[in-house]
Amino acid sequence: MSKSMLGHRARKRFGQNFLNDEQVIHDIVAAIGPLPKQNLVEIGPGLAALTAPVAEMSGHLHVIELDRDLAARLENHPTLSSLLTVHRSDALKFNFHALAESLGGKLRVFGNLPYNISTPLIFHLLQSLDVVEDMYFMLQKEVVDRMAAGPGSKTFGKLSIMVQQCAEVSLVLDVPPEAFTPAPKVNSAVVRLAPYAKPPYPVLDRAMLNSVCHTAFNQRRKTLRNNLKELMNDSQIEALGLNPSARPETLSVSDFVNIANWLTENTDQ
Fold it and tell me: What is the pLDDT of residue 9?
């Protein structure tokens, strides 16, 4: 990394923590396995710890950067600028469909995501999975645990269901705080999300599934009967093979998909 990149101070409002551990960087890039002619997109390139090796291996890289100073550094970088297309944009509002259409193929998306927007950003990307080949993200370890959690776990909830319904979740590696500057107060992890070509539990309406999960987990300690009473009665819940007295975290992803699909088919739109 050039010395010109090192004078930047991390900004709290952007949730910036810059990766600086060479072994961790190597392991992440090796997991991504960038190749020439792939449509690679990095969210939040920061000080280019991942940007430089990925751009050099792939020959070209699209980066989405909200921080104007960091975007300018990349655009003017002596060796990287010719390998990059810099999108000065908020990733939460970025149109991934439009980029994929302009490139004529699916996207491979990766990044060290700012912890303060990581979950909303994942939900934003879930709306574009039809144009995404795979994703590799550095996240707070707790968020990765919630994504990968199974039924019966205290961390199983809306995020687990919404992600697992449409993508395979794999832990790539754990990353300690000292791998960053400044060091965050939490542990981190890299996760791989691989969208299913054909989801094992097809959902008719993802917005309905999102709504059902939000309602069911709004009060975790209450039963399905209590949490879903505005949507379904006991006999309707039982008709789906579920116990109205069960707590939401004991249900499977397929159970929630079945509830959402039933409501889609039986609710006046």
Answer: 47
Domain ranges of the chain: 3-195, 206-266
Q: Would you say 189 and 176 are in contact if contact means Cβ atoms under 8 Å apart?
A: no
The pTM (predicted TM-score) of the whole model is 0.90
Query: How much is the pLDDT for 16?
Result: 55
CATH 3.40.50.300 fits 3-195, yes or no: no
**Each residue of 76-99: pLDDT tens digit?**
999 999 999 999 999 999 999 999
Question: Going along 113-251, which residue ranges are E strands?
Answer: 132-140, 167-175, 180-181, 188-195
Taking the alpha carbons at both ends of the chain, their separation in whole angstroms is 55
Question: In Å, how far are 209, 213, 225 from 230, measured between CA atoms?
Answer: 15, 14, 9
Residue type, 175: V
* Separation CA 44–CA 63 (nearest Å): 7
Which residues have CB under 8 Å from 243's CB, separation 6+? 224, 237
- In terms of residues, how long is the chain? 269
d(CA 41, CA 81): 15
Question: Does residue 41 sit in helix, strand or coil?
Answer: strand
- Quick one: CA torsion of 57, 59, 64, 66, rounded to 10 degrees? 90
Cβ-proximal residues to 163 (8 Å cutoff; 6+ apart), any chain: 122, 126, 147, 169, 193
Residue identified by tokens 């205290």 is 154
**Which stretch of 47-61, 113-127, 131-145 has the lowest confidence by average pLDDT?**
113-127
Q: What integer is the mean pLDDT of 243-265?
A: 97
**206-266: CATH topology:** Helicase, Ruva Protein; domain 3 (1.10.8)
